[in-house]
Amino acid sequence: MQQLLNDGLNSYNDEVTGYSDRRPLAITVQDPETGEVLGGATGRTSLGMLFLELFHLPTSLRGSGLGSEILQMFEDEGRRRGCRVAMLFTISFQAPGFYERHGWRRFGEIACDPPGTSRVFMTKDL
């Protein structure tokens, strides 16, 4: 069902815009010995926008600068693909401060559960 909806919407968007430029994007961190993926960032590019959908590093890799490096690589690839703006959403207890330190700005916030928590929408000009 999800694939049917996705394909239908993409087909409509392509017809209306004359663009068919959506491409997935992933920056991964792998264990150098085993090749196991430990974390990273995933998203996509489309219509001049970079979408950051998922970003996770295990606790043992946080605070080392690796997250900043991954984010920079993700943004740089978006620029190479012609993106002029980026967007993401995070949760108030996750990483809004991390993104703000890297030039992202909030453009919306919606309360969610548990009480006192919110979904934070962010953007950055590339």
Secondary structure topology:
Blueprint: H1 2-17, E1 23-30, E2 37-46, E3 49-56, H2 66-80, E4 85-91, H3 96-101, E5 105-112, E6 117-125
Parallel strand pairs: 3-4
Antiparallel strand pairs: 1-2, 2-3, 4-6, 5-6
Domain N-acetyltransferase: 1-126
Organism: Inquilinus ginsengisoli
InterPro entries: Acyl_CoA_acyltransferase, GNAT_dom
Structure notes:
This is GNAT superfamily N-acetyltransferase. Residues 1-126 form the N-acetyltransferase domain. InterPro entries: Acyl_CoA_acyltransferase (IPR016181), GNAT_dom (IPR000182). This protein is of the alpha+beta class. It has a single domain, classed as Gcn5-related N-acetyltransferase (GNAT) (Aminopeptidase). Helix content is 29%, strand content 40%. The protein is built from three helices and six strands, in the order H-E-E-E-H-E-H-E-E. It has helices at residues 2-17, 66-80, 96-101; strands at residues 23-30, 37-46, 49-56, 85-91, 105-112, 117-125. Strands 1-2-3-4-6-5 form a six-stranded mixed beta sheet. The radius of gyration is 16 Å and the shape is globular. The termini are far apart.
